[in-house]
Every structure is written in C-alpha cells, then in structure tokens.
Amino acid sequence: MAFITQLSARHDSRPAGWRRLLCALAFGLCAAVAHADGFEVSSAATQLESDTYQLNARIDYQFSGEVLEALNNGVPLTLRLEIEVQRLRRWWPNETVVQRELRHQLTYHAFSDQYLLRDLNSDKLTIYHTLNLALLALGAVDGYPLLDAGRVEPDQEYRVQLRTALDIEALPAPLRPVAYVTPAWRLSSEWFTCSLTP
Amino acid sequence: MFLDALRRLTSGPRPVALLFVLLLASFYLISGATQNTALFGRLYSLLLVVNILALLLLLALIGRHLIHLLHQYREHAPGSRLTLRLVVMFVLLALAPVSVVYYFSLQFLHRGIDSWFDLRVEKSLEDALELGRSSLDGRLRELLRQTRQAANELGPVPDSAAALKLNELRQNSEAAEMTLLTLRGRAIVSASMDPSAIVPTMPSEAVLQQLRQGLDYARLEPLGEVGMHVRVAVNLPVLEPGAEPRVLHALFPVAERLSLLADSVQEAFSQYKELAFLRQPLKYSFTLTLSLILLLSLLTAVWAAFFSARRLVAPIRDLAEGTRAVAAGDYDKRLPLPGRDELGFLVRSFNEMTYKIAQSQQAARHSQRQAEEQRTYLEAVLGRLSSGVVTLDGDGVVHTVNAAAGQILGTALDDAVGRLLQELPGRHPALDQFVEALLPHLTPAEPEWRAELVLFGQKGRQVLMCRGALLPGSEQTGPAGLLGEQTQPARPDFTSTQQLPSGSTPATRLAVSRSGGHVIVFDDITTLIQAQRDAAWGEVARRLAHEIKNPLTPIQLSAERLRHKYLATMPAEDAEVLDRSTHTIVQQVEAMKEMVKAFSDYARPPQMRLDMVGVNRVISEVVELYRTDHRPVTFDLQLDPRTPAIQADAGRLRQVLHNLIKNALEACGRDGAHIRITTRCAEETGCRFVELGVCDDGPGIPEEMLANLFEPYVTSKPKGTGLGLAIVKKIVEEHGGMLWVENMPEGGACIIIRLPVKAKGEGLGTRNQIQE
Q: How many CB pairs under 8 A join A and B?
C-alpha cells in the first residue's frame, strides 16, 4: 500500500489524505497513528525574480529518538518535500498548476563521523559534520524556482502549499511494517499554505 | 447474466487454486524483498497488503462456507454431518504438522538471525574503523601544516598576483585543487590539477562559519565518486588592516589504496551497524512472512477440506435425496454420475433401479388401464343383456350383478355387490327362493349346471332358466365354507379390488382378490312358456271348433226330427222316454254349441277397433248393468279421476270386465258379494300404465291354481267353461297389457290388470300384427 502511495506521490497530484486512509485500511490498526509533530513548515513565501516565482521556506526537522538511532546506525533516511501551486476556483476543485517533489537522503558516514545530505533530484552531495547543520541546510529552501510569471494569469488567485514527510517506503524493507505501525516513524508536517505573491 | 458468469467464475476450485498460486508467488517475492533486492524492495509493502487482503478474502470465503455448513447441520440437511466430520478431520490433519513446522521454523529463524551478530565481529569492525581514522589523522595534521605554510606564503601576495603563486604552491604540494577566496565565500583564484575543472569546489557555509570564528578546518570528506579527500581551509594572515579577510581552501586526494580501504571499512561497518539495528525488524518481518504463509497454507487447507468434503459427500447427499424422492413415489429421479469410482457405481445402480421401478410402474398402470377398459366393456355388455348375470367370488360374495338380474328378480340388486349371497334373502320373496334354489348347486360347487327354477312372487309364477359355471381359477377342495376353500395361491388382481364399490368391506376385498368363483346366468322364460301354452290352447280350440261344431247341428236336427215324428205316435210311456231323451240331446248339443262358440271365440284372431277409451267410464257402464240385477251384490268403486284415457277396443274391455265381475260373483256364491273395483295411474312406472283391480271377498284362489289360473279349463267352479279368465288374459295381452292375481291377506282375491297408456296410433298396431 505504501508502495502505491509512493507511486501516486510521483504521478498523482492530489493531497494525500486518502493515502493515509488507505494505509490505515491496509494495516487495519493504529487509527491513532497521527503524524508526529516533529516536522513543521515554519514559514514560506514567494518572490518574483527575473520573471520567475521563487519559493523561500523554513522547515523545522525534529527527528524522534527511534529515527535518530536508525540514522546513526547507518539507515539512510529519505525526506520528501511536496510543493504545489494551485489556481483557486469558485464552485470547482482547485487546479494544480505546478507540482514538485524534492527528495533528500540523509546518511551518517561513520568513518568520517559526518552527515551526508544528497539531493536526489540533482544528485548533489553535501557534507555536514553535525546533524544540526545538516537539518538546518535541509530546512532552508531558498529561491526555489516555482513557475514562470507568464503562466500566472493576472486576474486569478493562486496559492502555494507545501509539506514534508519522512518517506517510509524508502526505508529498508524489514523496517517498513514496523515504521508504518509506529507513531515515532510516521513523521510528517501539515500542509502549509501561502499565497503566490510577487 | 453477468452475475451468473461471476458466480461461475468464483465458484468451484479454480478461483481458489488461482488465488493460492498468486499468494505463493507473492510470498516468494516477499521473501525476496526481505533480502533487500531493489525490485522486491520496492514491491514489498504492496505485496504485504495484497497478501493480507487475499488472506482476509480467503477467510471470508471459508467463513461463508462454515456458516452455510453449520446452517445445514442445524437443519439436518442430508450429508451435512458427514461434511462437518470430514472438514474437522482434514483441518486437524493439516493443522498439526503445519503448527509443528511453524514453531520450529520460527525458532530456527530467530536463532539464525541472532547468529549473524557477534560481539567480536562488531568490535573488530569498530577497531578497523578506529585504525583507519588514526592512520589518516597523522596525514590530516601534515596536510594542515602544509596548507598553513602555503597560506603564510600566499599572505603577502596581492589578489592580482595570487594566481601564479597559487599554482606554484599547488604544484609544490600534493593538493588536487587550491582556491583562494574571501571569507564571505567569493572565489578569487583557483588552481586545479584537473585542467578541465573551471568551477572550483567551494567549502560549505559551515566551513566558512568555522573560519570566521578563527578556527582552521581540516577534515576527511567522502566525496562520492571522486573518492576520499581531505578538505583543509585556513585563514590567510591579514596584511593590511581593513582588507577583506581571505581564506585558502585546499583539497587533497587520499591515496587510492587507502581511500579504497577506508571506503571498504566504512561500507562494512555501516552495513553491519544497519543490519544489527534491523535485527529486530528483520525478525518481525520474517515472522510476519512466515505467519502469512502458514495462514495461507492453513486457510487453503481448510478451504480444500470444505471443497473435497463437499465433493465427496455430494453423491451421498444426492443418493439420500434420491431415496427420499423414490420413497415419495417419484420414480423419474435420476442422479448425476459423480465418477467411475465405487460411489459412481452406487449412483449408477440407483439410477438403474429407479428406471426399472418407473418402468414396472408404468407397465402396471398400463395393464390396470387395460383391465379397466375390459371391465367397462364387459359391464356395458352385461348391462345390455336381457339375461340376468350374477357372479360370485370364491367365498360366495356377490361380485357382479347386471341390471337385468334385478329386473327379473323384481328387486334392485345394486347394493348386493360385495355381500355374501346368503345375506341377500329377506328382501324379496322371489330373491329368497332364487338364492335357496341356487345354493344346492353352489355347495359343493358344480363345474357346470343347468336348472329350471320356479319362483312365486308378486308377479305371480315365474319360471327361470338358470345356467351356472365355475369361473377359471376356481378349485374346490372340500365342503368347508360356501364354495370350499381354495388352495391355489391368490393371483394379484388390482383391477377387481379397485373396482369394488366404496362400501365394500376389507374382507370382501380380500375375498375378491382371490381368483375363481361362480357365474350364474338366468332368463325369465315364464312368458315364453306361457306363449307356447297359449299357442297350443289356441290350436286345440280352433280344432275343437272346427271338428265338433259341424256334427252338432245335424245331431240337434236329427233329435228334433225324431221327436216330431215319433212323439205323437208313440205310446205315452215310450213318448215320455223319447221326449226326455231328445230334450236332453238338444239341450246338451246346445250346451256343446255354446262351448264350441266359446272355444272359437278364444281361438279367433283379434279384430280390434281401437279408440281412446276412458277406463273409468267403461267400468261405470258395466257396473251399472249389474246394479239392476236382483242379486245381493255391492260394488265399491275406487276410480282415480286422474286415470288417463287409453287406446283400446271398448267392446273387448267390457268383455274383460264382464268376465271378471262374473268370475267374482261366481267365486262369492249366492250369499251375496262385495266387489271392489279400483283404477289408478301406476305411478311407480311413471304413469305409463293404467292399473285396474277387481277384488272380491270370496274364499280366494287355491294355492295350486295360482300358477295356471289364466289357462283354459282351469276353474274351481262346478260349472263354467274355464275359459273366462283365459279370454281376459288374451284380451289384456292383445292390448299390450299384463295381469296377475293376488290373494288378499284379509281374504278374497284380486285380479290386477295393467294396460299401457299410449298415444293414438303408436306401437299397439304393430304389436297386434306380430301377434296375428
């Protein structure tokens, strides 16, 4: 089921409330499995620069003890940041204009005692010698290009929403069933919404 | 249609077999996934969910089967107990080995996983890591010292000339790349070992942050595909106050072999740590997989138990239902053949049996119908016979009586069927005599006999010609019972039993069901005999009239002539003798003439003048003549005014009345007579006859004369021709009527005449012609 979720995360644009529902259905338990309050989008705003709308956001990543233990034991963690730009419509579901997913993989390098952060979209590797530095860097989204100004119709209203979550499907297979049913592993943030402003 | 197709697809063994194969395949994939191969790793969660759903589905399927079975069990449906027993047996058989295997597999699994981990291995890996780190630490310090030295050399060099110096410094050192940059992160110049590298590798913000704090940076960094590098960044000494602080950033490659070794150690350590961390989840995962497989096997076994038990029991259930159907009389039941095994043989035998029963049933029905048809045919024939027919069965119970029998015996015999012959008397005098006369011929039963019976009943004397014979199948063994007991085994005869009237007793049925018996055929030949006698008397009368009448006149004339000629001439004494003799001759001749006339009247063929005559009127006229007589006679006329007119010869009717009245008067003698004359419409015949009765209060008619009363020369009176009643009878018969005499219980005799009421010109003329 989570596999389906992941696939749909790639191909489907809809918010993932139903995925959680399906997950709950799949395992038929832990209805109370809510997102941990470890992840939070603290701020987000857009700016128009050289005819491109750019996103700036700050995200707080607070890992639970179990997740940290796994990370320090060499388990790579994949974090997924979903970004959507929607055109608001009255009496009708909103139209998703842009949908992006930023994926980062965080690993602990025991030999050098450092944390490696790999941007899976660009395969760029960054090295941090503390976890905090790595999380700060991970939580800073600066000037991420969203869409061309030309695609924005002037008399329409747009909004940007984003959220982040730990990708359980990217965990090693034996860990997944446990992760699905353990609240400490179900880390995600609420959708954060801001308007698309120049 | 679609639903039917769906039901067909989801029923039977195929869908579950398919499900089972699919589940097995997915379990194979799951077990592969736990080995963390890429494809299976991606499919793992999906497979898990699919399998759990499939198991739930299987569970629901089995639950449905179970509920159905329990329902059937409670309803005591045929085969449900056997099915339940088989299911329980199969499940137990499957559960026991699977549970044992499951338990031991789990033990082995956990021990196997635990055995992967060893404290010594962990320790040595950590030691290897530490060794690698410390071996690189010295190198790290050396490179830091080198870089610091280079920074000092570069310190005084202005930015414009820094490129050359930097290149020189890089060549002198082992650095792969050297970059001079400001503390804010702006690259000033760069020198690289790789001539194609245009963009220099920049230190991260964290490194710059450290440098801003005045601390140099030197660290081993795994740079992915380029291998291990040592990154060193040092602050350059500030030459002029106010100038922007600069930083020297250098990347040193670690020796390839060392880098590989370090990578290998890191890889092994990391993997071991991850595996050690995943030990518990791995156990859970394997346990989950194993449990799912166990559940799958178990549920499939349970389902298979249901399926095979049903298949096994189906023919038995069919047989039970078939037996019930046959017991209920449905012989057309055919069961589907389950196969070529013993059950199949049983079912085939059952089908054969029901087929044969159905066939014989049909044959029995056919023969019953045939027998019924024959019986109806026989009844029709018997009903139209003028002869009376009575059949008795072996025990003397009346089996068949036709309508003519009742008519001849003068009593309805419809209720006689099913009763013993001896029980019948007491109902009718003629019947009593009939039964009494028959019994000697029936006990002991004669194979064939013939007898003439004379009965006396209301109709007078009746002569019956009886013929009797044993029916086939009857065999007499002795005098026991009415007709003797039969030794021959009873022949099943459904037809007789079913055709008995509903009132017949079981005993009768039993008796009738036995074969044999007696048939008695009888005819009323009274009329025939009477006709023969009448014909004989007619002939006598005609001859008498012819032979005697002719000589009488000459005798009389001669006697008168003798008298005339000699009476006067003879002496008185002789004359007296002559006178007396001739007188006697003449007188006797006269009497003889009268007698001959009477005979000729009797023998004369009828010349009737038919007319519509009111009987009552004729009676009144005739009686009126007798009233003028001086004899002491009283008439009691009971004439029914509703009596219809009949077609008759009025003169002859008068003669009949005269003869009857005269007869009555003569019977009563000279002391006076009381004569009652009645007429009525014979209602019991539907008013088709007028009944005329002439009764006197005389001594009645002697018993021995009753039979031949209406024959010529039968008379009890001293004088008379004896032809009076014979002529009455003749006239009545000429009118198509009939007559009989009854002695009244209070004394006296009654002569009853029935004359038919007919429309003018109908029937009678024809009858007269026949009589002529």
A: 105
Alpha helix (H) ranges present in B2-37? Answer: 2-10, 13-33
Asked if B445 and B507 sit in the same domain, the reply is yes
Alpha-carbon gap, residue A57 to A50, rounded angstroms: 19
Q: Is B271 on the interface with A (CB under 8 A)?
A: yes
Residues of B in contact with A169 (CB under 8 A): 42, 45
Helix (DSSP H) and strand (DSSP E) numbers for chain A: 5, 9
Same domain assignment for residues B583 and B653? no
Q: What is the mean pLDDT of each run of 10 residues along chain B (772 residues)?
A: 63 69 74 63 77 85 87 85 86 87 90 84 88 86 89 83 84 86 85 78 83 86 77 84 84 84 86 87 85 83 82 82 85 78 86 90 94 90 87 85 84 81 74 82 81 74 85 52 37 37 37 62 85 81 77 87 85 86 88 80 71 88 78 84 86 87 80 85 74 87 78 69 80 83 85 77 40 34
Q: Are residues A176 and B52, on separate chains, in Cβ contact within 8 Å?
A: no
Give the bridge partners for B674, in sequence order.
B634
Q: Is residue B413 part of a domain?
A: yes
B245 within domain boundaries: yes
Nearest residue of A to residue B131, measured between CA atoms: A111
Instruction: Give the pLDDT confidence score for residue B364 in this predicted structure.
Output: 93
**pLDDT > 60? residue A19:** no
- Please report, for the domain that includes residue B480, its CATH number: 3.30.450.20
Residue B573 tokens read as: 């004494």
Give the per-residue pLDDT at B630. Answer: 67
Q: How far is A56 from chain B (nearest CA, A)?
A: 18
Task: Give the span between the Cα atoms of B145 and B217, in whole angstroms.
Answer: 11
Q: Give the pLDDT score at B365.
A: 93
Chain A interface includes B42 (CB < 8 A): yes
> Which residue, chain included where needed, has tokens 């036995």?
B514
For residue B219, give the nearest of A3, A108, A112 by CB distance: A112
Question: Quick one: CA dihedral B190, B194, B200, B205, positive or negative?
Answer: negative
∠ CA B42-B46-B47 to the nearest 5 degrees? 100
Nearest CA in chain B to A130: B206
Residue A80 reports pLDDT greater than 90: yes
Cβ-Cβ contacts under 8 Å for B693 (sequence gap 6 or more): B676, B677, B678, B679, B750, B751, B752, B753
* Residue to substitute from A73, A111, A122, A180, interface B, most B β-carbons within 10 A: A111
Query: At residue B521, what is the residue type?
Result: V
Residue range(s) defining the domain that contains residue B445: 385-523
